[in-house]
Design brief:
Helices cover 31% and strands 15% of the residues. α4 crosses α6, α14 packs parallel to α15 and α15 packs across α18. The longest helix is centred in the middle third of the chain and has 23 residues. Among the domains are: 131 residues, no CATH class; 31 residues, no CATH class. The strands form 6 sheets. Strands 3, 11, 12, 13, 16, 17, 18, 19, 20, 21 and 22 form an 11-stranded mixed beta sheet that branches. Strands 6-7-8 form a 3-stranded antiparallel beta sheet. It is of the alpha+beta class and 715 residues long.
């Protein structure tokens, strides 16, 4: 490790003083597109970065942090796609659809495995007697007048044996035996009228294109078969010389299901609008749907079509009842529950959305793995758990250091809120308007550990969080990428700057690892711009919670909002976004109410444009090492050093790595010459499919006329 930067000092809050190794970079993952806007890249709870790729190994060069400091520390490129084609005309290979439940695999059944081994002449365990049957082998030669052993040597016999059993198909093997047999017609024949004797057969082997006659004993012993195979071939040969196929285990007595009915069931399942699983995107492979309900191509790590999600308001039984009702009203045939259930689980990979966080994928693998597997990932698991503990210790220390100048906040985007929503089935089967709620939770101070009389460690917690800033908008006003998230953060920083004159604020943020929203060069440009242009913002530090362990105070805020929404839905549906605003404001029953800001399209700033004018080097440090954004754990920006990013790849590091985002030899505009531009000049357009569904709800009077005017204005 180079020591060239060992004497550099950074002012402001520092990170953990723990020591340890640096976390290595991880391979880049595939990214899904946003289900809300098809031209918006998005992946959640991931340590991968859609903007950068790693071209060479990382050598960390560090900058020492001042020990006197008190505490620590995109919208991606537009894309649109469909199942079979892209906008540029390139064909996209279709992927195999994965089912929701595990489907049967007859090729792995014990009896079928034994059957394949038996047909290949190999040793197998009988499914009836449970005893091992030895492999087929060549038997001894005969002593007959045809002199079979002299005409065909042992080498040719072995070749015939191997070729016969390599066929591995009983029908083809019987056809081969039939081709080697020829019926003998004697000149004189004495018959019994009641039981006439069947004609004899001569047997032939073809060796080096020569057809050589052999006796039956030599033929059977060479192929390693018995006389039973010969008799079976004779019985299955028709008068035209063809051998009928093996029909064991095959029958056509089942009543076939009407293909039209199966297609109607599939159409009904496909008509259910897909929604986004906000929290579990990284741990489960999924397929996201655009406004037109056309799935966006997204392959899982192990291949196949990704999982889809529908609302958890209904069960499969309720969906089947709706299907029966629809078919009955149209006078079409219905189906039994088992058929609908079978198609739902085997023809589709659909999950019922539940707004909750899953357990850590790596921790579950380690917990359920075999001893050998645990040993193989032991080092990775230990590093993961160490990072989790170090991160929580950092957060605890940051809360203890909160005062007038040291602030700590956590932010997150809540799961998508849809309207209209209610218990009506029509709402379930129609696309709805998506609303987004981004919360910034300002945490309160946690007292230092103290010792009680029993010498036990105890912590006096003053409170979890204080002010909660909620930024609310719908998909007509904006998307959900770096521009939207960055605009909310920028507004929060601006408020802090205006409300704290003549102070040097050290702001620390915590969030998950969503690269499309929180962990990219656009947000980095925002932080750098803020510490440069805001007079009272001295440093900004962003610390990323460890993947799979991102529980934070924002989850509590979102839980309060979801409970309030659930209580309100008992008294009636939610028709418009304005109702959500009221519910969010009333979610907190004690303490300060949530401060809700209703955003319009002209609120959002184009931080992609800011990044292009602010700097160009976001992936190479001053020692020419490539930055792996997916491995970053901490980002830091200081007013004293403009156009500089400091980062860490592990919470155990005591030193930062430095990146100069501007090259002095390249002329770029100064901070005062850069003007922030608006991201949108007008409202966003809804997809045609969504417009159609909303019109249908209005035409069927499922949306009261009091609220219908709102939807009429956006359609």
């Amino acid at each position: 490790m180079s020591n060239s930067n060992a004497n550099s000092i950074i002012d402001g809050p520092s990170t953990s003083k723990c020591t340890g190794q640096i976390v290595s970079s991880r391979p880049t993952k595939n990214y899904h597109q946003s289900p809300l806007n098809s031209d918006e890249s998005d992946v959640d709870l991931s340590d991968s970065d859609p903007t950068y790729t790693i071209d060479k190994p990382i050598r960390s060069e560090h900058v020492r942090i001042s020990e006197s400091s008190p505490s620590s520390s995109s919208s991606a490129p537009s894309r649109s796609s469909s199942r079979a084609s892209r906008d540029n005309g390139e064909s996209v290979p279709e992927v195999t659809r994965r089912s929701r439940k595990r489907t049967r695999n007859p090729s792995k059944w014990k009896q079928n495995v034994a059957k394949r081994l038996r047909n290949s002449g190999k040793s197998y365990v009988s499914s009836i007697t449970k005893k091992e049957v030895p492999a087929r082998s060549i038997k001894g030669v005969c002593e007959c007048k045809l002199k079979c052993s002299e005409n065909i040597n042992d080498t040719h016999r072995q070749t015939l044996f191997d070729r016969y059993w390599s066929i591995g198909n009983v029908d083809l093997q019987r056809s081969y035996i039939r081709s080697c047999m020829m019926e003998i017609k004697p000149k004189y024949k004495y018959t019994n009228a009641e039981k006439p004797r069947l004609p004899n057969n001569a047997f032939y082997f073809t060796v080096n294109n020569n057809r050589i006659r052999v006796c039956k004993t030599f033929y059977i012993n060479t192929l390693g078969i018995s006389d039973r195979q010969i008799r079976t071939v004779k019985q299955k040969t028709d008068p035209h010389g063809f051998v009928s196929t093996d029909n064991r285990g095959k029958h056509t007595s089942r009543k076939p299901t009407d293909p039209l009915l199966i297609e109607q069931i599939k159409q009904h399942i496909e008509s259910i609008p897909r929604i986004e699983s906000h929290f579990l995107r990284d741990s489960t492979s999924r397929e996201y749907f655009t406004d037109s309900s056309e799935p966006v191509s997204a392959s899982s790590e192990n291949g196949g079509t990704s999982r889809e999600f529908i609302s958890g308001e209904k069960t499969i039984t309720e969906l089947w009842r709706d299907f029966v009702k629809f078919q009955t009203e149209k006078g079409e045939p219905t189906c039994e529950y088992w058929l609908y259930y079978d198609i739902f689980n085997k023809e589709f990979n659909i999950g019922f959305f539940q707004p909750k966080k899953d357990r850590c994928n790596l921790c579950m693998k380690y917990e359920l793995g075999t001893p050998q597997y645990k040993l193989s990932i032991q080092k990775k698991f230990e590093d993961h758990m160490n990072e989790k503990e170090w991160c929580r210790q950092e957060k605890r220390l940051d809360r203890q250091n909160i005062n007038e100048t040291n602030l700590c906040a956590v932010y997150d985007l809540q799961a998508v809120l849809q309207c209209p929503t209610g218990d009506t089935s029509a709402f379930f089967y129609n696309s709805k308007l998506n609303c987004l709620n981004f919360t910034i939770v300002q945490m309160l101070k946690k007292a230092d550990p103290t010792r009680d009389t029993n010498d036990r460690t105890a912590e006096q917690v003053i409170g979890a969080y204080d002010n909660v800033h909620s930024y609310f908008w719908d998909e007509l006003q904006g998307k959900r990428g770096a521009n939207e998230i960055g605009s909310c953060i920028f507004d929060y920083l601006k408020r802090l700057n205006d409300q704290n004159p003549n102070k040097q604020l050290n702001v620390i943020f915590y969030s998950d690892n969503c690269c499309g929203q929180n962990k990219n060069k656009y947000i980095a440009s925002l932080y750098s711009y803020a510490v440069t242009c805001f007079e009272n913002i001295h440093t900004i530090t962003h610390k990323y919670l460890i993947k799979g362990h991102t529980q934070n105070e924002g989850d509590n805020v979102h839980s309060l909002i979801e409970k309030e929404i659930k209580r309100n839905k008992k008294s009636g549906p939610i028709y418009t976004p304005y109702q959500y605003v009221t519910l969010i404001k009333n979610s907190r029953k004690t303490g300060k109410p949530f401060h809700v800001m209703e955003l319009t399209f002209d609120f959002f700033i184009d931080f992609q444009n800011l990044q292009e004018n602010w700097g160009y080097n976001y992936n190479e440090d001053e020692h020419k090492n490539i930055l792996a954004w997916n491995a970053i754990k901490v980002l830091k920006f200081c007013k004293a050093e403009q156009f500089v990013i400091y980062y860490k790849t592990s919470y155990s590091q005591n030193e930062f790595t430095k990146i100069n985002i501007r090259n002095k030899r390249k002329k770029m505009p100064g901070p005062g010459e850069i003007a922030l531009k608006k991201a949108f000049s007008q409202k966003q357009e809804l997809g045609e499919h969504k417009k159609k569904d909303l019109r249908d709800l209005i035409n069927h009077n499922l949306i009261p006329s009091y609220y219908a005017d709102f939807y009429s204005s956006i359609l």
